[in-house]
Amino acid sequence: MSTKNLTNEDAKKKIKELAEGIDFTMMATNLKQQPFHVVPMSTKEVDDAGNIWFLSNKNSEHNKNIERENRTQLIYADKGNFEFLSVYGRATISTDRNRIKELYGSGDDAWFDGVDDPNITAIKIQPDDAHYWDTKNGKVISLLKMAKGAITGNEPDLGEHGDLKV
């Protein structure tokens, strides 16, 4: 894999591409304690500033953890396409009803009593540090390239990875 570090707009685009494309992440909070608290979350949006948004219940354990200590780690993995993203950042909780309505989708009815549920909050993760691994051709082609590399002794071009500085 080649290293391609991205900054500013390119970094924001890569975070958006991977986070929204993969969708589900494991969100770790309470990072000062072991084990940390980890829950699956669905990405609602990556905004123009590179912030990653989620909806959450105000009474959830991760909301309580964020209120105590805002450091958060997100781990995205799409094993089918060999795409991965790790984001370390600062979380903030918002109760802005307009923002919640912008993020809310019909699938969220499984978790909330409609868009006006008083327990809905929006969580914004502002990335401080991020790293990605992105193959160019997905899992099958990557495995074929690895096999070819093993036979020929040539290092296969499997894609790229790098730091993302927003």
From TrEMBL:
The General stress protein FMN-binding split barrel domain extends over 10-157
Taxonomically, which superkingdom? Bacteria
Please name the Pfam families in this protein's record.
Answer: Pyrid_ox_like
Q: Which PANTHER family match?
A: PROTEIN BLI-3
Q: What is this protein called?
A: General stress protein
Query: To which species is this protein native?
Result: Aequorivita soesokkakensis
